[in-house]
Specification:
The complex is a heterodimer of chains A (612) and B (434). By secondary structure, chain A is of the alpha+beta class. Chain A is built from 24 helices and 20 strands. Chain A has two domains: 43-73 and 150-235, Penicillin-binding protein 2a (Domain 2); 239-610, DD-peptidase/beta-lactamase superfamily (Beta-lactamase, 3-Layer(aba) Sandwich). Chain A is 37% helix and 18% strand. With 434 residues, chain B is mainly alpha-helical. Chain B has one domain. Helices cover 72% and strands 1% of the residues of chain B. Chain B is globular and about 80 Å long. The chains are: A alpha+beta (612), B mainly alpha (434). The interface between A and B is large, with 37 and 46 residues. Chain B: GO terms for molecular function: lipid-linked peptidoglycan transporter activity. Chain B: It comes from Hymenobacter sediminicola. Chain B: It is found in: Membrane.
């Protein structure tokens, strides 16, 4: 019996061993290992992101262009669906049976107790059709969210569109804050001003139980943040002018850019052919986008920003200004209209001064202007002389905002091309080219590439006598002004006094007897227009017509460039179109006797080519 | 019944009674926290304006009734003369066997087993009460034999008495309650059972678990190397005990291979899952593994001092299953942290230590054996229940004594404990009398 008494210690030892094991294990999982705390939070905490109201977009007169309207998603909680009358349900939704079955299966796979979308993007009328009957189908509900809608049929290129974020975007650091299924601006202003438009997202932490049912806020909302609505954009677009421009460009290819030279604000920017902004919103948007993408007329191509052409005769103005600044010519300089140098546009009076040369768009005159500006005898080697002279000439030309992106508030902009000396070295060989090789540049032909926006900016610069503000669409964000870079004045190398000397010539183009742009004359409505026609040689077909102008000549309020592809001489189509735009903007409407130009512009392209 | 109540009360072991009531009280607080719902319409006060019927929805309210009836039970148990247990031990045992046999036939199936009897609003589980009845019977039998004399017939009867109830309970599909009867081995050990049986069983259990955890080739290799080492360093063993050594080795190898058969052919699928999950909780993350994972998360997230009373998100939001019954320890761990869980373990150690002390001071084999049975049964529940909530034991549905919600378990442990205190109280009186 004695030795058995010792066994009580064995039993007690077993008890103690287990107790100590538990104590140690509990110390490990409760105190040392922090992962269980995180796991408990992950269990109960649900992060709800509140997407704020996206900023609205207005035109320069305060007319609403882009707004948010509710669209509806039909949601389903699979567990609550009871004895679904599938046939009636499909009739109600007007969807094929197979599609509904498939969607239900997807929803069930996602969660049996959480709501997931069955049909997305229902419009208000579509909702009205089904809402009353929905009571017969337990488990189905409607969830509203905001989507973009448009109060205008115009300006689609500039506005851009909003779409669901793609997986490729989500991987980028810039979009770290976005979640799958979020919407964001994909192009145009919607994309450029995404930060301002989207506002600040709010986050709410909710506690949920094991079935995902909400059980109130976490720590009385200590960590919650409120959402801040996006800022509105006040664009400088005159939507009436824009609409008019799009109407005039119907059935044509080309672009219009109209600027307020004093501020760099874009008044209208037309790219033809175009499309309506509402095409890229709502149900079926993906299919419609593909249609636009595959259209051979390339309606998605934003021509004024993306198409670069040789500018044609309009460039003669820049050529002249640079030469004047260099001091190699004066406004009174006379050159022969020597057809041996280069063919001229037509037979005309002798160019005694620059005004006559501009009025007649004399090719040999500006050939000689550039030659004197480039060949300055900097080197005894004539090739080196041309090379050095051209490099300096190019540097000065580029101060007009050419050959580089201007920095407009849409990201698609192309920079165009003012070739470097190296470019010609590569093409022809070092010291294997001289002025005869590059003379086409003097009349805006050849290797030069300029966008419609850049050309309009040159016009604005001339209108301002030597400076420009970077063209931009948005003149006010929220209650503030434009972005700071749009308030910065850029000056050219050319002294303002030289600008004054070419403007009379430009007025002669429009209002002088036999001027190339006489179709753009607005003298009969009391507006003096200064302009320049252009005809761009096109290797692929009929020439492109351009006309660049500003008005009123004394105190310019609008600078405009019209570019019509395959329409021949600029004076016959582009000039009257520009005049209509100027008249519309400055007077508000078109004088009755000038309506004929509207009809004229609706005619077939051949008529513009025939008329010379 | 010659003694005065005052003298009697002096002989009751008030330390055990104190620990008992402390645990029951803490248990009720835990049940309240576990069954508390933040949106219950009680207007901040305990009962609010709720009617009796409405209150009967809540476990914590029903537990008040169970505790009240348990107090009545205690008074009755302390009044009964200890000789009654001695006399009626086998009668009770016989009755219990009958009850266990008929229970599956008259009980409605609840949670996969037919083991609950319904008496009006009450639900009782006979298996719970089989423990103290069996403890009484084996103690009574133990008192009449001498275990050390190695009388095979006596041992066989004892084994039969011990095994019959769990077999019947197993038939009713209450594996956990049946396993509890293994606790009796500790009591028999105290009374003289060969420690070899404990060692062999423990070794078998370890080999079984190792066989599931470690690749078989490794296990066989290690045992073979051990055998080889023994032969090399202790050639005497090889000379004298070669057959024994080799057969032990053969049995071990056999077990290693037998595990697969046992695991796949003997165990039921849900039992297999529970053991798989013990080894690898992520094996079945939304099924059985869910319980273990969520239970560990609840306890682990409590930290050192806990989230505070009624602040446990794991329990409040129903992530932990059976939180007021089998998983009550989660609520304690989550809301009171390591301090709380350690406190509960210390309380159990105090109770078990006190019961061992009371058992050892019994003069009769009957009293002492019964005392050890009480300690062993309490310990088994304590070890398996807490073990399963922290992933150290398979998920076996047995309650944490005196803490878990439930009338059957509270009554059964109360009776178990207070029969011992009754026997103990009369022991002292006997001494005074003579």
């Amino acid at each position: 019996m004695q030795y058995l008494e010792g066994r009580r210690f064995v039993v007690a030892a077993i008890f103690l061993a287990v107790a100590l094991t538990f104590g140690a294990r509990l110390f490990y999982i409760q105190v040392l290992d922090g992962s269980y705390k995180l796991a408990a939070d992950r269990n109960t905490l649900q992060r709800i992101v509140q997407v704020p109201y996206r900023g609205l977009i207005y035109d320069r007169k305060g007319q609403l262009l882009v707004q948010n309207t509710p669209v509806y998603d039909l949601m389903v909680v699979p567990r609550e669906v009871k004895q679904l009358d599938t046939v009636r349900f499909c009739q109600l939704l007007q969807l094929p049976l197979e599609e509904v079955r498939e969607s239900l299966k997807t929803a069930r796979a996602y969660s049996r107790v959480k709501a997931s979308p069955l049909v997305q993007n229902l419009s208000t009328p579509e909702l009205a059709a089904i809402q009353d009957n929905l009571i017969d189908f337990p488990g189905f509900s409607i969830k509203a969210r905001m989507a973009r809608s448009y109060r205008t049929e115009n300006m689609a290129h500039a506005l851009g569109y909003v779409g669901a974020i793609t997986p490729a975007f989500l991987e980028k650091e810039k979009y770290a804050k976005y979640l799958p299924g979020d919407f964001l601006g994909i192009s145009g202003l919607e994309s450029f001003y995404e930060q301002q438009l989207m506002g600040k997202r709010g986050v709410q932490y909710r506690m949920v139980n094991v079935r995902g049912i909400e059980k109130g806020s976490f720590r009385d909302g200590e960590y919650d943040t409120l959402s801040v609505a996006g800022q509105d954009l006040h664009t400088s677009i005159d939507i009436e002018l824009q609409k008019y421009g799009e109407m005039l460009m119907r059935n044509k290819r080309g672009s219009i850019v109209a600027l307020d030279p004093k501020t760099g604000e874009i008044l209208a920017m037309v790219s033809a052919p175009g499309f309506e902004p509402s095409v890229l919103t709502g149900k079926g948007m993906g299919n419609r986008y593909m249609e636009l993408l595959q259209d051979t007329a390339k309606p998605l191509f934003n021509r004024p920003l993306m198409a670069t052409y040789p500018p044609g005769s309009v460039f003669k103005l820049v050529n002249e200004l640079v030469a004047l600044q260099m001091g190699v010519v004066t406004p009174q300089t006379s050159f022969d209209c020597n057809w041996k140098l280069v063919r001229c546009t037509h037979r005309h009076e002798h160019p005694y001064n620059v005004s006559i040369a501009i009025k007649n768009s004399c090719n040999p005159y500006f050939y000689q202007v550039m030659r004197t500006a480039v060949l300055r005898g900097r080197s005894t080697n004539r090739f080196e002389d041309a090379r050095l002279g051209y490099s300096e000439w190019r540097r000065q030309v580029m101060t007009f905002g050419l050959g580089e992106k201007l920095g407009v508030d849409i990201s698609q902009e192309k920079k165009g091309l003012i070739p470097t000396s190296d470019f010609y070295d590569k093409a022809y060989g070092f010291h294997r080219w001289n002025f005869r090789t590059i003379y086409s540049l003097s009349i805006g032909q050849g290797e030069m590439g300029i966008t419609g926006l850049q050309m309009a900016n040159v016009m604005a610069t001339i209108a301002n006598r030597g400076y420009y503000y970077t063209p931009h669409f948005v003149k006010g964000i929220g209650n503030g002004g434009p972005l700071p870079q749009f308030r910065e004045r850029h000056v050219t190398v050319v002294d303002p006094k030289y600008f004054e000397t070419i403007i009379p010539g430009m007025q002669q183009v429009v209002d002088g007897r036999g001027g190339t742009g006489s179709n753009a004359s607005l003298l009969d409505v009391g507006i003096s227009v200064a302009g320049k026609t252009g005809t761009v040689q096109n290797r692929h077909g009929a020439d492109h017509a351009t006309f660049a102008a500003f008005a009123p000549a004394e105190d310019p309020k609008i600078a405009i460039v019209v570019f019509i592809e395959n329409a021949g001489f600029g004076g016959s189509s582009a000039a009257p179109l520009a005049s209509l735009m100027i008249e519309k903007y400055l007077r508000g409407d078109i004088a009755p006797w000038r309506k004929r130009w509207e009809n004229w512009l609706q005619g077939p392209a051949e008529q513009f080519i025939r008329k010379r | 019944m010659a003694s005065s109540p005052a003298r009697y009360s002096r002989s009751v072991d008030w330390v055990t009674v104190g620990i008992y009531f402390l645990m029951v009280l803490l248990g009720w607080v835990s049940v309240y926290a576990a069954s508390y719902t933040p949106d219950a319409p009680t207007n901040g006060s305990l009962f609010g304006n709720l009617s009796f019927q409405e209150l009967m929805v809540y476990d914590w309210f029903k537990q008040i009734l169970w505790i009240g009836t348990a107090v009545v039970l205690i008074v009755m148990l302390l009044v009964i003369d200890y000789k009654a247990y001695d006399t009626f031990a086998f009668v009770l045992y016989g009755g219990m066997i009958l009850l266990l046999i008929i229970t599956p036939f008259i009980a409605r199936p609840i949670g996969g087993s037919r083991s609950w009897l319904e008496l009006g609003p009450m639900r009782l589980q006979p298996a719970e009460f089989a423990k103290f009845v069996t403890a009484l019977a084996v103690s009574r039998y133990m008192a009449s034999i001498n275990l050390r004399q190695q009388n095979f017939r006596d041992q066989a009867v004892l084994a039969g008495l011990t095994l019959l109830p769990p077999l019947l309970i197993l038939a009713a599909n209450e594996t956990g309650q049946a396993l509890v009867f293994a606790a009796f081995l500790l009591a028999y050990f105290r009374e003289g059972m060969s420690p070899l049986i404990l060692v062999i069983l423990a070794a078998a259990a370890i080999i079984l678990i190792l066989a599931l955890l470690v690749p078989k080739v490794w296990l066989i290799g290690v045992f073979t190397v051990i055998l080889g080492l023994v032969f090399v360093f202790n050639p005497k063993v090889m000379r004298h005990h070669l057959p024994v050594s080799l057969s032990v080795w053969a049995v071990v190898i056999g077990m290693v291979f037998g595990v697969d058969f046992f695991f796949n052919n003997v165990l039921q699928p849900h039992q297999r899952k529970r053991i798989e999950v013990l080894i690898n909780p992520s094996a079945d993350p939304l099924g059985v593994g869910w319980n273990v994972t969520q239970s560990k998360i609840a306890i682990g997230s409590g930290g050192f001092t806990g989230k505070g009373f009624l602040q446990g998100t794991q329990t409040k939001f129903d992530f932990v299953p059976a939180q007021s019954t089998d998983f009550i320890f989660c609520t304690i761990g989550e809301e009171w942290g390591w301090l709380g869980t350690t406190g509960v373990i210390v309380l159990f150690m105090a109770l078990l230590g006190r019961v061992l002390y009371v058992a050892e001071r019994q003069k009769s084999v009957f009293g002492r054996t019964y005392g050890y049975c009480v300690a062993s049964i309490l310990f088994f529940h304590f070890a398996i229940n807490i073990g399963m909530t922290i992933g150290l034991a398979p998920v076996v549905g047995i309650p944490l004594p005196l803490f878990s919600y439930g009338g059957s378990s509270l009554w059964s442990f109360t009776i178990l404990l207070f029969i011992l205190l009754g026997i103990d109280a009369y022991r002292k009186q006997d001494l005074e009398r003579y």
